[in-house]
Amino acid sequence: MSRVAIWLFLLAGCFGLIPTSGALAADTVCIECHGGQPGALGAPVAEWRTSIHAQNGVSCHDCHGGDSTDFAMAMNPERGFLGAPEYGEVPGFCGRCHVGVSESYMAGAHGQAIESGGAQCVVCHGNHAIQKASLDLINEEACSQCHAYDRAALIRLSLVETDTMVAEVEHDLERLYRLGFAVDDMQGTLYSQRNRFHQIFHGVDVERVRAETAGVQAKLGKIGNKIAALDSTLGQRKLWGSVVIGLFFLAGVIFLLVRKAYEEDEKS
Ligand code: HEC
Ligand code: HEC
Ligand code: HEC
Ligand code: HEC
Ligand code: HEC
User: Fold this and answer.
1) 64 within 8 A of 34, measured Cβ to Cβ
2) Of all atoms in ligand 5, which is nearest to the CA of residue 118?
């Protein structure tokens, strides 16, 4: 390599054009070999890099098994390699980590109908580019591929309503916290209700979603009442505050008037 080429190489390295060893720290033999493969063998690497799993350090071998440190033995079943799951195996594959979700999924209509085309995890979330979940995943285009959208729409409606309420309560508690109120208890209830609420969807049962979200909404309503009570003491505090300021002002005016009258009295 000429000197110029070496300098160009170092410069490119500085600007991140060439992956340096630091950036590859989390890389495994799986990523190194698959990253260089064409088509469907290489694509998972780039997709996975954008995912919530990559952000949380869940790598190829955490899902697919195998030995991530040994090029030759990486995909040996003796080293725990599982391969790619079949359609019906996916819930068990993801459910090794997402235990609560996969339990409610298996008990629901999709889990029960998985052998006859019930949607499974990857149908809704994708496989390698999985992102943080949101209610936007429930939409007409995605849900009407296999059946009518109407029941799905009812589920979405109840969940969105509850989600909006959660956001409002969260916002109010933050405001009260900044004003110096103790909100720990209410925050605890909010978190547990929010967790409960995000587990409901996977059972895809309209009546259960309605009953459960109603339960969550009732609990949130109670927190809402407490917030309203705190707000009204806050209002009273403000009122008394202005009354006190008013009284001080009045006292000051009276004092000045009295002094003035006294001075005029002295002069005459
Ligand atoms: C030296 C290159 C190389 C390494 C290292 C490697 N793979 Fe592969 N992988 C391949 C090739 C080539 C194929 C396609 C042919 C085959 O299935 O053997 C493949 C196939 C796969 C498949 C699809 C299998 C199927 O049943 O369709 C998965 C999943 C996979 N690899 C995951 C991994 C994981 C996880 C690791 C690390 C523990 C890994 N690979 C390490 C080259 C590699
Ligand atoms: C969150 C779990 C998960 C992670 C992490 C993951 N995969 Fe996969 N992968 C799957 C699933 C599930 C399938 C089955 C395909 C399907 O059903 O869509 C699959 C399929 C594959 C296949 C078969 C070809 C295909 O696209 O269907 C290959 C090759 C593969 N994965 C390689 C990798 C590599 C390389 C990594 C790391 C960069 C990786 N996977 C990370 C879940 C994962
Ligand atoms: C090795 C354990 C593991 C496996 C296997 C796994 N995940 Fe994850 N998953 C995680 C971790 C860790 C997170 C990030 C922390 C969190 O949000 O729970 C995550 C996050 C997620 C999220 C975002 C959660 C949120 O808060 O919005 C979804 C969706 C998800 N995974 C779906 C899947 C699917 C689908 C599969 C199977 C293809 C799968 N996961 C396989 C560990 C795993
Ligand atoms: C029919 C579409 C669909 C299927 C099938 C599906 N999900 Fe979900 N998933 C969603 C939706 C929609 C949400 C967001 C629900 C919410 O926020 O209340 C979600 C949320 C999640 C979350 C985040 C939960 C949390 O506590 O915030 C995880 C993790 C997850 N799914 C994993 C899985 C796994 C694992 C499977 C397979 C066993 C699966 N999903 C099957 C649509 C689906
Ligand atoms: C891959 C095909 C497929 C997709 C995509 C799909 N489903 Fe389903 N769904 C099924 C099957 C199969 C059943 C069980 C048979 C039936 O009831 O139609 C089912 C049943 C249901 C049920 C229970 C039946 C009822 O009338 O109460 C609901 C609710 C439901 N799905 C909601 C959804 C939602 C929400 C989405 C989108 C996030 C979705 N589905 C996407 C295949 C799918």
Assistant:
1) no
2) 12
